[in-house]
Amino acid sequence: IQDEEDKYDGIWRLSNLGVPVHRDPGKDFLGVSDGLLAAIAKVLKFPVASMLPMDAFTVVRKSFDARKLSKEPRFVYTVDIDVRKLLSLEPRTWDFIYRLKPKVGLVEHMPNERVSGDLISIIDDVKKNHQGSPTRENGSNIGFGSEKSYKCSTTRKPKIAVVGSGPSGLFASLVLAELGADVTLIERGQAVEQRGRDIGALIVRRVLQMESNFCFGEGGAGTWSDGKLVTRIGRNSGSVLAVMKTLVHFGAPKNILVDGRPHLGTDRLIPLLRNFRKHLQALGVTIKFGTRVDDLLVEGERVVGVKVSDSSDKLQSNSQKLRYDGVVLAVGHSARDIYQMLLSHNMVLVPKDFAVGLRIEHPQELINRIQYSALATEVCKGRGKVPVADYKVVKYVYGEDGDPRSNSGAISCSCYSFCMCPGGQVVLTSTNPSELCINGMSFSRRASKWANAALVVSVSSKDFDALSFNGPLAGVEFQREFERRAAIMGGGNFVVPVQTVTDFLENKLSVTSVPPSSYRLGVKAANLHELFPIHITEALQYSISAFDRELPGFISSEALLHGVETRTSSPIQIPRDIDTYESTSLKGLYPVGEGAGYAGGIVSAAVDGLYAGFAVARNFGLYDESI
Ligand code: FAD
């Protein structure tokens, strides 16, 4: 037995285990069901599924697959197998399975270095053991699971200002405070309690608080959101797992660690952020809400602090100068005033590609039917067996200048769905009353009768040039241009211009009484062809027709396009050093998160903040990898 155990020690992972819907307890069940045991037994060619010990298996991922390609809708699992527990069953049987392994192709040996906890416990362990400090995924300097050493600085605590309490600022603050820095978190918007009231006033009375709204305030742009936690930076990477486990520590449900498409919803994000805040305060972090950073204090080409004012004071008459050893700039991409301020310090800002377009809204039932056919009845407003249906579509547009008809053979732009919110609503994300832009949010059950998603087209400097916008903020001016046009087309008061998809495809405005929309501040029929340059409009038309071939029924008289979606990602990047995270044009400044051009979405912004936190801590001697 000992020989056997030595041979088969560890965890093996089985992936792509399909369980048909009728054999699965449903989307909310994350344990090992009889249906899953049967799927495992089938892959392992183990004759009697019921003899497999349930406790040998842990579900690490569960997703729902209703793609037309699969024979029938099914849940797809990834499962870890504790080999020792199987050995206790019948070593010879396991020997048989082991020999089978190369043929099965689905079984792989898991490395043992998995992230065991949330950031707080990881840093705690690092401090206790004086080893295992984080290294980055590429192995360079910060990350998770390496065997490097740690020391606490005995000198004065470095005073660090973190500007912005979005995911990047929160995670940077957490790491820095846990590692012993004296952190002040400065946020122009309000804490979630007051922010909720301000957003309520916006929706009910059309009062836009310029400093407390869907973009600004505690938790950043992602608080009143769908809270999707999907990311393109690798679901299983140590840093993403650490972020997810930290969210669970602060109150997110554990299923986000397993769900293939995890999301929280606004109702869960608000208490989570309150817990996050309390933890930071318990660590000694000073949090200043309603305080806007207006300028940087620079001495001898180094940032030595910030100039702040009460954010309700437009004249900045009560401004204060606060001195810090380092400033983490985590302001998101709606803080356009900050970009302007950085330029006044001769900082280098590099224009970046992003995407603009429209937000499409369908009845959720229609999307359920398109995606699930007969199974659509199982959705039951988010309480059913299968998740509320979503979609993700992308189309590359070929041809010169984006004109899909010229067919030159070169990809000129891509059109794709972005930030799809099943069971959600369209919301106003303007930060200025003369500009109109929108996005989507939902609650955890995704129970509303609407499904919305942005359909956006990638744009680059040639698009900005065409409208005579140049210089580092050309992309910002490009965004602003369409936000202003949309505000005018809506007729003011945050009314959103809309057009049915069928009319948009035919470039006409036949419907003056538009179908209903989830957008609460009112919609007005308009010809959205008048919004964008022609090649963007044509790319949208062309792609929508292609999406309808993929999702038959996508083109529908019930589908309504809303204008305008402009803030998909940052229009600039602030160059920084790859190891120290310090700005390459201003010492002492650490640009992080989406606004700095290093993230797109809640999780990637949190991960960037986390790494920045470690980098800043290292720069100030709070830990040292070299001993
Ligand atoms: P932000 O979250 O933008 O935070 C920046 C913070 O800095 C803000 O709180 C702002 O008030 C503050 N700030 C700005 N300037 C100053 C200043 N001068 N002084 C002091 N404070 C300042 N992403 C997802 O992954 N999933 C989703 O489901 C999702 N849905 C979204 C829905 C909506 C409505 C919106 C608007 C965004 C959504 N996003 C979503 C995007 C996501 O919110 C962002 O990618 C993410 O929040 C970026 O994090 P960040 O920390 O870099 O910046």
Automatic annotation (TrEMBL):
GO biological process terms, semicolon-separated: photosynthesis
Domain FAD-dependent protein C-terminal span(s) in chain numbering: 353-568
UniProt region (Disordered), positions on chain: 130-150
Name of the protein this chain belongs to: Uncharacterized protein Cbei_0202
Domain Pyridine nucleotide-disulphide oxidoreductase N-terminal as annotated: residue spans: 159-217
Superkingdom as given in the UniProt entry: Eukaryota
Polar residues bias (residue ranges): 131-143
SUPFAM superfamilies: FAD/NAD(P)-binding domain (SSF51905)
Pfam families for this protein: FAD-depend_C (PF21688), Pyr_redox (PF00070)
Organism: Juglans regia (English walnut)
PANTHER family per the UniProt record, alphabetical: FAD/NAD(P)-BINDING OXIDOREDUCTASE, FAD_NAD(P)-BINDING OXIDOREDUCTASE FAMILY PROTEIN
Gene from which the chain derives: LOC108996840
